[in-house]
Design goal:
alpha/beta, Urease, subunit C, domain 1, TIM Barrel, 25% helix, dihydroorotase activity, Deacetylase_Atu3266-like, hydrolase
């Protein structure tokens, strides 16, 4: 762990109150910023990171991943998608429900080197046996009283409610679980994240329930009957709710991202609010791999560089209550990702059976969180998979 650190000549990007992208030096002591500018001296014995040619942003934050390793059959360890790959903050999106959250807190969130928080699943059992045993079979799957009690006892870690709304999960129960989840979110004064996919319920039904601050994840999935480009009326509704403040999240995953849908949506001005991986055991070896590769895919379909960085750092951080302003000011907690943008020519799959050729790849180099300074790299290796 680095008690003193000097980052030399990194180009800032993604800081809402620092628009100047000229290289700066950044001094960090005991996990906090002590100086930012040019020509800053390194403290005696400090670790020095030469970041010439690289960018520095607020720490990347993955708004949708599954890291309840051992508690569900799909979850990875936080370290597999975290600091070693440029991500300082991970939001576990519904792996645990009220019935097993205590294990998530004690054995995952608290020991992790990364900052790990959660959206609590409205289903009491969470994703114990994901897509084999639904967490939302019928009304017995939800206990509102216990869910609210768990939220109150763990508000430092629980930052929202998660509900999966697709036929493979809710079956004939349809839209009802989303309505219950929204009621719980309103009582708890937390945002609601809804997973969408194969209907029922219809995406239109879900969008009627969401309000500003809520999150629609898998916004660019390509599944029939529920993707935003299938009819003009639905696309118009999606644009309206996004403009009103509903946050569209990528949530790539093993089955929930389409290059065609993303490219068409972005060409028509519908950008995602946040870029997340939906990283789990069934997506980490492809088609997702890591946050940097997911960011690279959004860059390839037309999302501007600065928008991609904001969607992977500042914006997801805002969803879970992390400050965006003053990150380079003296006294701020050190929370940064240093990365490069590499030229490439690699063809990658989405999760719908299509592929695209990427000519630039995000490449994390260091992740800094408090006193931790970790050398980082992509999990995806273009020399192997390209």
């Amino acid at each position: 762990m680095a008690q003193s650190l000097l980052i030399r000549a990194a180009r800032p990007v993604g800081f809402p109150d620092h628009a100047d992208d000229r290289p700066i030096d950044l001094r960090i002591e005991d996990g906090r910023v002590t100086a930012a500018g040019q020509g800053i001296d390194a403290p005696t014995g400090a670790e020095v990171i030469d970041a010439r040619g690289a960018w520095i942003s607020p720490g990347w934050a993955d708004l949708h991943a599954h890291v309840y390793h051992g508690g569900t059959d799909i979850s990875i360890r936080p370290s597999q998608g975290g600091l070693a790959h440029g991500v300082t903050t991970i939001v576990d999106a519904g792996s645990s429900g009220e019935g097993n959250f205590v294990g998530f807190r004690e054995f995952i969130a608290e020991p992790a080197a990364e900052r790990v928080v959660a959206f609590l699943n409205i289903g009491s059992i969470g994703l114990v046996a994901c897509n084999r045993v639904s967490e939302l079979i019928d009304q017995r799957s939800i206990d509102i009283t216990r869910t609210l009690a768990v939220i109150e006892a763990n508000r430092d870690i629980i930052r929202g409610i998660k509900c999966r709304a697709c036929s493979t999960v809710t079956g004939a129960w349809g839209i009802t679980p989303v309505k219950i989840a929204k009621k719980v979110a309103k009582i708890a004064k937390l945002p609601l994240m809804v997973h969408v996919g194969e209907p029922p319920p219809l995406l239109e039904e879900v969008l009627e329930i969401l309000t500003p601050g809520d999150v629609l994840t898998h916004c660019f999935h390509g599944k029939p009957g529920g993707n935003i480009l299938e009819d003009e009326e639905l696309f118009g509704i999606a644009r309206q709710v996004a403009a009103a403040g509903v946050r569209l999240d990528v949530g790539h995953g093993g089955a929930s991202f389409s290059f065609k849908v993303a490219r068409a949506g972005i060409e028509r001005g519908l950008f995602p609010f946040s870029i997340s991986t939906d990283l789990h055991l069934r997506s980490i070896d492809g088609p997702v791999w890591d946050m940097a590769t997911t960011m690279s895919k959004l860059l390839a379909v037309g999302m501007p560089f600065a928008e991609v960085v904001a969607a992977a750092s500042t914006r997801p951080r805002s969803v879970i209550g992390l400050p965006s302003e003053g990150r380079l000011a003296a006294g701020a907690e050190a929370d940064f990702t240093i990365f490069e943008l590499e030229d490439a020519s690699v063809t990658l799959p989405d999760s719908s059976g299509d592929s695209a050729t990427l000519d630039r790849l995000f490449a994390p180099r260091h992740a800094i969180l408090g006193t931790r300074s970790v050398k980082a790299a992509r999990l995806f290796d273009p020399t192997v998979h390209g």
